[in-house]
Specification:
single chain; mainly alpha; elongated
């Protein structure tokens, strides 16, 4: 008996849709759907966090 290719393709498609719906609990912060002002704020916030982590790392590595 030969399987119609529609059924496996349909099952995979349904699985992908269900995974995409339930997988992300928190939306990632990206600039794709933001206004220019929100994007600039996001960039500034990420830069400030990165600089803060770098300073903490430097302080932890500095000899006492």
């Amino acid at each position: 008996m030969r399987i119609n290719p529609f059924f496996p393709v349909f099952a995979v498609l349904v699985g992908v849709v269900v995974y995409a719906y339930y997988a992300p609990e928190d939306r990632p912060e990206k600039g794709l759907t933001t206004t220019p002002k929100e994007y600039m704020e996001l960039v500034q916030k990420n830069r400030a966090e990165r600089v803060k982590k770098e300073r903490q790392k430097e302080q932890a590595e500095a000899p006492r």
